[in-house]
Amino acid sequence: MSAVLIIGASSAIGQALAMHYLQQGLPVIWLSRHSPELRNPQLLVIQAPDLAQTADWTLHQGFFSALISTLQQYQVGLVFNCIGWLHQQTEPKLSPEKSLSQSSALLLRKTLQLNLEVPVMYLQGLWPYLTKTSAIRYLQLSAKVGSISDNQLGGWYSYRSAKAALNQWIKTASIELKRSNKTAAVVTLHPGTTDSALSAPFQRNLPEGQLQTPARTAQNLAQVAQQLQAEHSGLLLNWDGKVLSF
């Protein structure tokens, strides 16, 4: 396998993925607004712009052009986008809605911005690379709660809606990508419940064995990536590789 790009590498899962592939001896491109503590000669660190601070996507064309040049140089064949957001513990505190009465414009806008808009900006920015790179694999972390048909519990209105929209976006992009690159695969991927700052407030009462360490999650996702084929493009996949319903 060639080099690996990890977008949102400073997240718990992103860091674990970086460590996993570095341990495999592969070059890893760490893309994040935050620098890593680890040091490795196979690790290339790129400072990411704060895409959430602008509504004008064209302002970042220079960044994406430079990033694509780096991907070409390192012959990147695998991309993980780990960007996602669920709650905010600082003021104003924001958390997934338990009922419709808890919905707010602030929560909805931030949830959509960080779970849909920013990932879509990366997908669009890297599109010229995805359309021209043979056997490229692009795995966008999503969530099973974005499955409309699987929704039996309710709640979490904003987060569910953002992930459902993200799943649809990747599905639609996979159809367009196939027209120019039949060897490519872009998928959304549910990583499972991982012990991280994102899931910390919601770990109580989890069934035994459901909570995974970041390292274990990284191993699972790497296995899915290894088995990913072009015919899987557009699917929503579970951490164990099983297909989830939309």
Structure, explained:
There is one protein chain. This protein has 246 residues and is of the alpha/beta class. It has a single domain (4-244), classed as 3-Layer(aba) Sandwich (Rossmann fold). The protein has 6 helices and 8 strands; from the N terminus they run E-H-E-E-H-E-H-H-E-H-E-H-E-E. It has helices spanning 12-23, 61-74, 105-125, 127-132, 157-180, 214-227, and strands spanning 4-7, 28-32, 43-47, 78-81, 137-141, 185-189, 236-237, 243-244. An 8-stranded mixed β-sheet has the order 3-2-1-4-5-6-7-8, sandwiched between helices. Strand 6 (185-189), helix 6 and strand 7 form a beta-alpha-beta unit. The mean pLDDT is 93. This is SDR family NAD(P)-dependent oxidoreductase. One of its GO terms (cellular component) is cytoplasm.
